[in-house]
Amino acid sequence: MTETTPKKGIHYAWWVMIGYGMLMVATIGCITVMGGLFYYNVCDDLGFDLSAFTFYVTLSMVFMALGMPLCGKILASGKIKLPVLLTVALLMELIPFALMSTFTQMWQWFVAAVPIGLGLSATSTVTAAPTLGNWFHKKTGFAIGMIFTIQSIFVAVASPIFAGMIDALGWRISYVVLAGIALVLALPFTLFVIRYRPEDKGMLPYGYDPEAVTEDGSAAPAKGVSFKTAIKSLPFFMCCLVVMMAMMTSNMNVVLPTYAEVVGLGAIVGGLMVTCASIADIVLNPVIGSFGDKFGATRSMVVWTGITILSLGLLYFSANSPILAYIGAALNDAMYALCGVGLATYAMALFGMRNYERIFSVVMMVGYLVASLGVPVMMFIYEATGVFQNVFLFCILVDIVIIIAAIIGDRAAKKLPVEEG
After folding, report:
1. What DSSP designation does 338 have?
2. Nearest to 154 by CA among 66, 258, 23, 264
3. pLDDT level of residue 110 (50, 70, 90 thresholds)
4. Is the separation of the CB atoms in 408 and 234 below 8 Å?
5. Cα–Cα separations (whole angstroms), residue 370 to 21, 205, 227, 244, 402
6. For a Cys staple, 289 with which of 123, 142, 296, 397, CB 3.0–4.6 Å?
């Protein structure tokens, strides 16, 4: 029998949120973001070409994308429990990451990218969003946003520490230390805290509607669009378009230092632009999540994409103004934040929770495959035209497409048949 009245104190849903935040710290934060701290030192020590070496990151993204539909299907089937799936995925990422301390050939990083990418597919929003959607009937967007905020805070604090450690102890020892810290931070949560549904703990979701409880005290069946209906529908294609366009332009932070150098602002300003974006990310994730909870996922997508357009306008005119560059970089992080909490809640609003895992995993697979092309496309535009501001104009056009597609998808989704299951 499921509890129908909440216990005093912190609802268990918040512990699940914290657990996923620590999982994001250990995987996206340590392996993907802070893993970038090792690139120069590894290439300098082993004589690798930097552009060739970092191809292993692209390779991991490709396998991450390809693994997402499989994770969604596994999660929906219930044949493998979420703690098992997350723990195995965590080890698939951290063991190869630690073994990088012993690598001497570039191909070894390419091989390691395969299990790391497949592991990342399970420890991403593909499992986080539906899990938190199950646990939070209220403040879902805020909860999803907070897991990315936890990750961003850790990266902001830990990055300079580990940069110093790499210089002092060397990159080989630092790989092992970082992997060990990541394991200690995440493993207790995957084993003992994170559960897929409140029913697994004999509980009801945070903010549940008492009228939605069945006679036996359990939560009412999830409502939503069937997988077969969804993938053939106009909202599905619009959702894929939104995800593809959003993830392509979310890589703007990567090219901001190049922009600063090209227009004469200098390397210091370029670095501070990235810092401004990173600080904004800590704030924007929960803010955008809360905005979506209050005003709806589609309206949130439109409004915050509009703010991204404003940021691109500021960046366009910032060639002679570091202040405009800093403000533009900070506001532009809205698109990066939307790629976390915004896309997850938008897809949830279109299709409901019934088959959300499978639907969202396919959508995200498409998004990540396109995201790997984002930086090359933006760099091609700059090199072909010789004017970096044309990159910002291109991104403005992309953002307009996002707004139009989001509105069309939302209106068409209202006509889709909703089922219980």
Report:
1. I
2. 23
3. very high
4. yes
5. 25, 35, 22, 6, 14
6. 142
| 29-41 as b/e: b if 16+ CB within 10 A | bbbbbbbebbbeb
336, 319 Cβ separation under 8 angstroms: no
Q: How far apart are CA 22 and CA 403, in angstroms?
A: 32
- Burial class of residue 44 (count of CB atoms within 10 Å of its CB; 0-12, 13-18, 19+): exposed
Among the residues of 193-266, which ranges form H helices? 227-230, 234-249, 252-262
The single residue listed with the structure tokens 């990173």 is 278
Mean pLDDT calculated for residue range 100-119: 97
- Give whole-number Cα distances, 321 to 109, 254, 261, 269, in Å: 41, 20, 13, 10
Q: What is the pTM of this model?
A: 0.87
pLDDT (average), residues 134-148: 93
Token pair recorded at residue 167: 């210089």
Q: What is the pLDDT of residue 251?
A: 78
206 — phi, psi (to 5°)?
A: -65, 130
The 10 Å Cβ neighbour count of residue 342 is 31
Written as six digits, the tokens of 305 are 């994409």
Cα first-last separation, the chain: 19
Helices (H), 6-54: 12-24, 39-46, 50-53
Q: Are 306 and 202 in contact (CB under 8 A)?
A: no
Average pLDDT for the chain: 91
Strand-pairing partners, residue 136, are: 206
Neighbour tally for 6: CB within 10 Å: 15
The rounded distance, in Å, linking the Cα atoms of 259 and 264 is 8
Whether 225 contacts 419, CB under 8 Å: yes
Q: What are 399-417's pLDDT values in tens digits? A: 999 999 999 999 999 999 9
Give CA–CA dist 268/248, Å, rounded: 26
Tell me the per-residue pLDDT of 363-386, one tens digit each, with 9 for 90 and over.
Answer: 999 888 887 778 788 888 998 999
Buried b (16+ CB within 10 A) or exposed e, 389-408: bebbebbbebbebbbebbeb
